[in-house]
Amino acid sequence: MNGKGELAVSRRGVIVGGTSAVALASLPASGQERAQAQPSASMPPAAMPVAFEVNGAPVELTLDTRTTLLDALREHLKLTGTKKGCDHGQCGACTVIVNGQRINSCLSLAVQHQGDTVKTIEGLGTPANLHPMQAAFIKHDGYQCGYCTPGQICSAVAVLDEIKAGVPSHAQDDITAKPRVTSDELRERMSGNICRCGAYSNIAEAILETAGAKA
Amino acid sequence: MKSFTYERAKTPAEAAGSVAKASGAKFLAGGTNLLDLMKLEIETPTHLVDVQDIGLDTIEKTKDGGLRIGALVTNTALASDQRIRRDYGVLSRAIVAGASGQLRNKATTAGNLLQRTRCPYFYDTNMACNKRQPGSGCAAIQGYSRQLGVIGTSDSCIATYPGDMAIALRVLDATIATVKPDGATRTIAMADFHRLPGDTPQFDTVLERGELITHVDLPRPIGGQHVYRKVRDRASYAFALVSVAAVIQPDGKVRAAFGGMAPKPWRVEAGEAGLHEDPAAAMETIFSGARPTEDNAFKIPLAQRALASAVAQTRS
Ligand SMILES: Cc1cc2nc3c(=O)[nH]c(=O)nc-3n(C[C@H](O)[C@H](O)[C@H](O)COP(=O)(O)OP(=O)(O)OC[C@H]3O[C@@H](n4cnc5c(N)ncnc54)[C@H](O)[C@@H]3O)c2cc1C
Ligand code: SF4
Ligand code: FES
Ligand code: FES
């Protein structure tokens, strides 16, 4: 069905256009494309200090202004639990909880987070003392390769808080109603987390069980 | 990404002044569109003025019975507001139909309005694109144009405005309040905010350099049933192929604005009057002068069906 010219568009371009499924496998190409981008005389790198709290501990860093929160966590603080999938807001692997709200850490500059409170998968639980959501993912086999899992779990924990706070979703028939924890609600609310292994139904079960246990 | 310097403005006036002063400066709100484009070097600002500390993050009642939404109110906060859900349901619905929970937590009202097109050739820096690089040509016109615009387009650019929230704001007759670097303020109707491309597709809106959006104002509630119907290639977390924001009154009168069709939210008031009696004729008026491509001609009947399904939903 390839229409005229379709092949002329890079795969990545079509994905960014938002009609194809997000495919993690295609993503490394974006790095190459960036490296090929026209070199032009740009300003020398600018560095700035930034201080925020990560998993309860204060951190102070001096970073190139271009550093994303994701790269600050992974490359500078060595908190490699948070993953880089697409680096463009399309997969959710980089989801962390900032000031109580889940965000894509790849689409945020570290310097935007002066004074913020950041929670990553490392701060939710430890192997000896798992967060209930982590335990439920293990029990229900909510992963295969595990790459998307830290993002899924951070997102899921925040989703249950969003439902509790009454944040509406596209799955609701009545937008004025208080949202409920249902499989349809969870699937819609978790749509920002792509799983290349397709562990979705087990992920949904793990979240449902955690929600039930909490309620 | 090209390097840049960064500052945080404390007030709207300071922010506008800072962007006007430094050539190559841009406002930074949530960053979910700007940083994406900077990583691809489609946007290459040399200075970012972060507006997160300038206030403008509340929704207040206005004296004529409407609501005044601060430019920095997040998409999540706006969609969750009880007054918005009750009196302007189409706006809540449009917001939650867009992006993902993570993105909506970060995205702001002003940033959402100003998100740039999702034309695949705009994103592919190897391709000609008049919007990204004025004068370079348009790879989409002879290319793969399934997602692109059918009306309001030009020989320079056939891209669409991709967002959802703005389609609802258009049907609600919202206005946009701004402040310029010299302190002057103005109000822009949603109808006039996004530009048609003509031969200068690089300008998406009528905003001037350094002009800061401070608020979006909603007039008093208009009642009726509110529906946002979004048709896309997957059920969530995808941009619209076609969308419709509709408000249907008890007497059957319909207001409708369409997304995914044009470089701006597409609403033709003159065509609306007939929508409840002879929708096919009314849609012909609304889309008269359309110039679809072979790839995207399906959007016009799809828009009509999306509206019919939205109206049917309110009758059931
Ligand atoms: C994967 C993905 C999927 C998405 N899907 C959808 C979707 O389905 N529907 C949809 O509608 N959107 C979608 N979006 C887009 C998203 O809604 C926008 O990225 C977001 O709304 C932008 O808001 P922001 O505050 O982050 O803007 P920023 O990125 O901070 O800014 C965007 C632009 O606005 C300017 N700006 C910001 N604030 C002001 C101001 N106060 N005055 C003047 N200029 C200002 C900035 O200089 C910049 O040019 C998607 C995004 C991604 C990454
Ligand atoms: S349609 Fe517009 S945005 Fe797309 S390639 Fe042509 S000029 Fe660029
Ligand atoms: S890494 Fe994919 S959304 Fe951030
Ligand atoms: S991507 Fe492999 S478990 Fe989700």
Strand content of chain B: 15-25%
Q: What's the story with the biggest beta sheet of chain B? A: 5 strands, antiparallel
Q: Can you write the helix and strand succession of chain A as a string? A: HHEEHEEEHHHHH
User: Count the strands of chain B?
Assistant: 11
- Cα separation of the termini of chain A: 49 Å
Globular, elongated, flat, extended or rod-shaped: what is the shape of chain B?
A: globular
Q: If you average the pLDDT of chain A, what whole number results?
A: 86
Give the ordered list of helices and strands of chain B.
EHEHEEEHHHHHHHEEHEEEEHHH
Could you please describe the fold and organization of this structure?
The complex is a heterodimer of chains A (about 220) and B (about 325). With about 220 residues, chain A is α+β, with helices and mostly antiparallel strands. Chain A contains 8 helices and 5 strands, in the order ααββαβββααααα. Chain A has helices at about 10-15, 30-35, 70-75, 120-125, 130-140, 150-165, 185-190, 200-215, and strands at about 45-55, 55-65, 95-100, 100-105, 115-120. In chain A, strands 2-1-5-3-4 form a 5-stranded mixed beta sheet, with helices on both faces. In chain A, strand 3 (about 95-100) and strand 4 form a beta hairpin. Chain B is globular, with a radius of gyration of 19 Å. Chain B has about 325 residues and is of the alpha+beta class. Chain B contains 13 helices and 11 strands. In chain B, the strands form 3 sheets. A 5-stranded antiparallel beta sheet of chain B has the order 4-5-8-6-7. The model of chain B has no long low-confidence stretch (mean pLDDT about 95). Flavin-adenine dinucleotide binds near residues 26, 111 and 212 of chain B. One FE2/S2 (inorganic) cluster binds near residues 143, 147 and 199 of chain A.
